[in-house]
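Trying the structure run again after the queue cleared.
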Amino acid sequence: MLAWAVASIFIYLVARKLQWDSLLGELKNIRPFWLILAVMGNLLIMVFGTSQWINFLPRGYHIRFKNMLEINALMAMTSNTVPFLAGQALAVVLLAKREKVGHAVALSVMALDQFAEGFAKMSLFLLVVLLTPIPDWMKQGILLAFVGIFILFTVLFFFAHRHQQFKAFMDKQSHPRLEKVWNFISRWAHHMEALRNFRVFSVGMGMALAMKGAEALAIFMVQKSFGLDLPVWTIFTILASVSLVTLVPVAPGNLGIYEATVFFVYQYLGLPPEQALGVALVQHVCYLIPLIGTGYIILLIRNFYPFRPEPAKVETPLT
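Done. Tokens:
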């Protein structure tokens, strides 16, 4: 809430000095074809994300692509409209209850999703730090992000590789509730197979990088829609700055924070204020249309065609 308020005040102070006729002129000269490509590029984020979740399912579990895509789209819509990790919570419930994989498997997929997201962001930050000039505030933010992501990696690796020890703890418990807790932790850690299987791990990290690539492609398309001819590294600077400030998501849709960040970076790159704000607004719209719109379309379709659960998703249940 504090970050959103600061960003809103910042935009208000900037907006007071803008020449609105120039901003409207920039928006009128947008080339729609490139914007369509930008929306399609951001739509690919969900396609890669869905493939990543399927890849992270433990052996013996299978969910059809269209079902997983629906859950991914509903999570994206909820995450961008409701605060407090509501999107992730919804995805866990849908995976566990609707797809019948159980809460331990659902939470393992979500944990691996966050691991892969952290891996992709660390790769992007490293690329930007090594190859592009960035502001000091961004360097400090990246350093803090590295620390947080490294802690997440360490914790998840520890649980994934010590799951048998947690099972031993469970066997020693005499209290039924403690036994249930250790049993759940043991099964959750056991299901994070991607952190013990190099092939599954590589595919998952590849999908995470592909998602960032799709987002970078969409940023390039938005630049082209404004007729901008900027160096390629500016795309990664914009993407890294947005990834940094949205590490802690703010609903709805990171409004204000996203625009303020992109505006600031484009001004740092030398664009006039009116053009920088125009690009920031359009870039965020092209990002939100597929991530929110797809979920709404699915909800609309489900009003006419309710979901019909399939009889068996678990082929060989894990113990």
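The mean pLDDT is 86. Worth checking whether this holds up in the mutant runs.
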